[in-house]
Amino acid sequence: MHMTPEKSPPAREQGLVRFGLGLASWSERWFPDPLVFALLGIVVVFVAGLALHQPASKLAIQGGKNFWTLVPFTMQMVMIIIGGYVVASTPLVYRLIRALSGIPKTPRAAIALVALFSMLTSLISWGLSLIFSGLFVRELANRVKGMDYRAAGAAAYLGLGAVWAMGLSSSAAMLMATKSAMPPTLFNISGLIPLTQTLFLWQSIATTAILIVLSVLIAYWSTPSPENARTAESYGIEYAPIGSSLEERSKPGEWLEYSPLLNILVALLLCYYLFDVFRTSPQGALAALDLNTYNLMFITVGLLLHWRPKRFMRAVADCVPATGGVLIQFPFYAVIFGLIVGTGIKDILANLFASISTHNTYALLVAVYSAVLGIFIPSGGSKWIIEAPYVLQAANLHQVHLGWVVQIYNAAEALPNLVNPFWMLPLLGIIRLKARDIVGYGVLQLIVHIPVVFFLCWLFARYIPYVPPIK
């Protein structure tokens, strides 16, 4: 009797690979669409508010009133996607991506390399990390046969789920180092906390290095063999090369579209402005690295490196579909923000937090609290504004180093990103997958990261001397 050959069963894989495949299969079957996740979050927080004796009418009003609160932030996120894409798709950067994609020869090496560059670029800008890593995965999908596309997509997301907040785009660290950006009530509690006391503490650098090494090893060891891989082809995904040659100019009116003149002039103007921003920043150049400055830097570099308006606009048009999820879902997350901040939920949580913490348990409680709250308010900067007043007040009470408290927050609040689809949206738009396709490998990373992050936060808090606020 003729027997049809079967694929090698997952049982032949190593234990971590089998576990990763099982989680990936589970997430593909059970994980909801990101919009469902946002809507469900609203319902959960609303019910929690009722349980905490908040009036239903007040919850509804505060939630609805805040629907448009994150519109400026949403636009900043959209511009991060566009800015990152136009830079990553320039001929110069795309040549770098192509060169890097020629290094790995096996699926396991390819996914480990994606994980490494995702985290390294996230220390510069999480927006750049998402776009660069997404394009890197697309290029590797065409080159490395048998590469599991789900695992590669999850590796590309590690920058947002592991170390981004430990780098230069940390909203919390940048805010605390910039007096003009801090609400006066917060400054009265904490004073100014320079970057030397947050991002550049050796304990912070050590934590970042440990998380990078750990994440790369997990990504490497959990990569399925080609026999058990879900490749880009199996999803019906094919990619055309980025940055192909422009069509010929056909009309006299198109001359300026194909000329580099306007790109050069406008880029020079913006470069001078950026130079002046860094030169005149009262707290130093690093303090000027906010979201608006980052976005303008990437747009300026993209404008210059694309050289011609026609090529620049084509890159913008190519990446706009990746912004759709951000545009519609961020306002619903703003409703969750309003439910917590605009009612008594925030004060109840604050009082509870201060009453149950001690010097020895404080760091661990901050880490757990920040990670849990991050499920419902996934914006690191907005959530820090909520947490900072009572978290730092309790730190002064228990004499815990304020700069390390900021880094505890940064390390812990990134954890839910590994499974929260909020920040996946730009990446998913580029690699054409759904959140459920990559969340399984995110869960695997999360299981390992939680005890490591919590332990390091607690350990270093015990040995960094307390420094009174600098005012």
Outline:
The protein has 471 residues and is an all-alpha fold.
Care to describe what's here?
The protein has 471 residues and is mainly α. It has one domain (14-238, 253-461). The chain has 23 helices and no strands. α4 crosses α16. The longest helix is centred in the C-terminal third of the chain and has 27 residues, at 435-461. The chain is globular. It starts with 14 loop residues before the first helix and ends in a 10-residue tail after the last helix. 47% of the residues are buried. The model is unreliable at 1-11 (pLDDT under 50).
What is the chains' assembly state? single chain
Any low-confidence stretches, pLDDT <50, length ≥5? 1-11
Q: What distance separates the N and C termini? A: 84 Å
What string gives the helices and strands in order?
A: HHHHHHHHHHHHHHHHHHHHHHH
Discrete helix count: 23
Number of separate structural domains: 1
* Mean pLDDT value: 83
DSSP, total strands: 0
**C-alpha-based Rg, rounded:** 23 Å
Quickly give the structural class. Answer: mainly alpha
Level of helix content? 55-70%
Main β-sheet: number of strands, strand sense, barrel status? none
Strand content: under 5%
Shape: globular
